[in-house]
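Hey, resending since the last one bounced:
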Amino acid sequence: MKAVHQMFQQSELAPVNLSIAVVTVEKIPTSVELAADVVNASALFTKFTNWVEAKTSKWDFSLRLTGLDICTDSNCDVQAYSLLNSVCNSTHGESTALIEGRDLGFGVSFIVAREIARSLNTPYDANGNNNCDAIEFIMSSELIRLGDAPYPVTWSSCSITSLNANIPNFACLNSTNTASASMLNISDVMPGQVWNSQDQCKAALGPTYTPVINNQLCEQLKCNKARLYNPVNTHPALDGTYCKPDKWCIQGVCVAWAGAIALPSTQSAAWSQWEEGSCKESCVNNSIAVKPWIRECEGENVELSCSGIGPSAIYDNCSATVTTAQKCIAANIVPIETFAISVCNESNILDSSVSKDPYLYINIDEALACKVHCKAANSATTYLDVHETFPDGTPCFITGDVQQFCQGGVCSALAVSDGGWTAWTVSVSCDGKCQDETMQTPKKVYTRSCTNPP
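The structure tokens again:
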């Protein structure tokens, strides 16, 4: 709801900006459900409004998010159901909206904002209601789907005129008799500062997706995962999402921070402490068991690019100490080509532009050897990187008489590279007393750490 609140704070709506706060969240009881995966929107809306009407606590507007496929008559291209001009109705339950919240992630916030505006007597754009574009703005009368471009992030001039004229007429919004009156302590923190681009990808598509950081992030957040060649379009990054140094997304555009809200804090990118992984043997022919040491580049509101000596991961050959539980079962060991074929088959299911046929760079191109490539569906000579790597410990290239192995998607020799020391930092600062009552001179203890694992 932070994202919805932010939409009603857009400067074009001033001075009648509407504040949105969540009063209560409840799980809908089974008695308010309909026993079907595809349901009539009107019937589900009626059951919900009757349930809301029986509540003793009050609020200005209620919202039901459902994973059901809602339909009106024979039309299932429906994402919401609400009543025009319903806020402050004497029938409290009708001041509500039914929202189909499936497969949109934070994109559902645009639908919620649209239905709240509709309840404030602001009609959908076009379709005989006004002369504004039917697709371009929040009050779009069209379906909003992941990947839509352009995605509606601002209000049309028609909606601005309507909201500015109508909001002051809803007296209940200024009432102190509802529970929300004491809860409108809304933080100025923008939604993109609460949920970064990685959080947004996970919410829209699942935990294995990561953001593609590019110049279009604010307009259209793209997310990728292993075994996909083409990233998946989602929705514009939430307002406040970091996009470039000293810039954040606002209404689909990467801009410098402005306004009364304090500039977001930053934390310089830096390596985390090394963490020791477990020894593991892959199920690819001729592989060796390896144990990783991994560190992460961490930061806040900065580009995650860590400078300094050393890699983000190094690997030890642990074949001599691998346990039975860490070994691959002999029957599951497959040739490298078979592993690549299985990846391309799965990639083809996810993305039809990828064929089921792999192309191996093993012992051909050191830089590409550990990345699985599949032939393009429309070209036998075009090879696509499907963002999947061969398992750690897979033999990938020979330089002279040195065998190299895949390590975190990179083909290199299993040799711990020389590291270096980090800069000295103060770890303890003592005043004139510290642990020694006779010590008069302030003392500081400086520490540094090795950039390679212990």
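The radius of gyration is 28 Å.

Sorry for the duplicate.
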